[in-house]
Amino acid sequence: MGNKDSRPVSVPVHRQRARTPPQSQGVRQGTPARNSPGKSRTPPPKPPRAPRPENSTSNQHHSRSLPLPKRRGRHHSSGNNKNQKNGHLPNGAGRFGHTGNLTRSMSTFEVSGAMTLPRTVSDTALLGTPPTADMGTILRTEMTMSFLSRGRRELELGGRAMRILPDALLSLWDLQVLDISKNKLRQLPSKFRRLRSLESLTMSTNEFKTFPEQITDLVNLISLDMGYNELRTVPKGISRLARLVNLILNNNNFAELPEEVLYLITLENLNLSYNVLDEIPAKIYRLRRLRGLELNNNNLTRFPPGVLELFNLEVLNLSFNKIGVVPEDISRLSNLSRLGLANAGLTQLPSGICLLTLMIELDLSDNRLSELPAEFSRLKLLRKLELQWNVVEEFPEQLLQLRGLEVLSLHNNRLKFLPPGIVGLQRLKKLWISSNRLTTVPSGVCELPELASLHLYDNQLISFPPGFENVSNLPDLQIYPQRSIIFG
């Protein structure tokens, strides 16, 4: 390609909406289709209920979440600290250190269709047990062999299409971690309450319509995942779970936050995303240890006032609610490091958001924002900013002072010009500015040392600076189609 070649750059791309995959970016999924880029549009309707995860023994739900950061020692937050699986709030909250699995023993059992696990096994040579051994004996033997020395007893029975739990399971009184997710369970046997050593219980993606009362007797529970069921309420006895730290109730049918949950004062992580909540009670302030609160994809119509009393919050997700206005008092949540306000019906931001100086990730996409507060440059720790699908016409100069930015997404706005100072953002890894009204790109953008992903397609580029044809070595480059491109 010569320097004076006026032909369009032929970098093949897919004409798709430039969204980051759920596992790596953002806080949302299921976003509706958009209007033409740059045009005024009405806010999209509330997305449908998040899809249920495929049948798998993995417990990674695909609702988009803000990752919970490591606890910062100088901020008070009591209770046991259990990090979330894959660093995300709503998913796999029951992982405790380096624990083993009973996958070797369970792999010898033939389970198909809707059958339950058998009580006896005809061939247990791999386990070194008699052919007619009771499954309880097999499981106990394997647990003793594999886990007693590790100090952790864990059993994985996810994705086995079970409708009834095997009797042998109910005698494993020393079990500490149990995953029975992605089955077809509708109720638990009465003897389930005997598993009082359980610390982590994952029952997501089943067919529970009522919350099993037996769980309220599992007083040692630290993490409970009941996401992707059909629950509407919880029993009063749940307040007996005095050690509970993580409670995952996403993708159910809760129309209101059960009052009983407000007595779980040890909670640090609460996920109620993808329900039908229209109000959050003011008494949520009782949960003073909360570090992570997921309320995205509900029917909230205002910013919950009680949330402003949760001073230990580090992660707050209110995306896909029509809250309309963010209060100035949001500055009281001084420990916030990740905030999701995507598709929240916002037309402006309060200046108080600029006082959240520990902010690392901020999602403001899918709103009607045209500018940022003047003091936005105070967010010196900001690494990721999502401003796509707004009505920004001028590049916010405040961003040029955020030298730690790694991800900047401004696609589908009304930008006509990029300031030369953008080349000062030396840590940028992703710059997505497709579907705007740009006619040129500043010299040096392609020389940003950390840049790996550059999206410029669907603009009105008529020229590129000299040397821009060398950007083809970027791992992710999308600049075609354009009206016409001429290299300087």
TrEMBL record:
Superkingdom to which the source organism belongs: Eukaryota
Keyword terms of this UniProt record: Leucine-rich repeat, Repeat
SMART domains: LRR_BAC, LRR_TYP
Compositional bias (Basic residues): 61-77
Sequence segments annotated as region (Disordered): 1-102
Any one biological process term the GO annotation gives: intracellular signal transduction
The keyword Repeat appears for this protein: yes
Polar residues bias spans: 21-39
Cross-referenced InterPro entries: Leu-rich_rpt (IPR001611), Leu-rich_rpt_typical-subtyp (IPR003591), LRR_dom_sf (IPR032675), LRR_domain-containing (IPR050216)
PROSITE patterns with a match to the protein in the record: LRR
Pfam families membership: LRR_1 (PF00560), LRR_8 (PF13855)
Identification of the protein by name: Malignant fibrous histiocytoma-amplified sequence 1 homolog isoform X1
Organism field: Branchiostoma floridae (Florida lancelet)
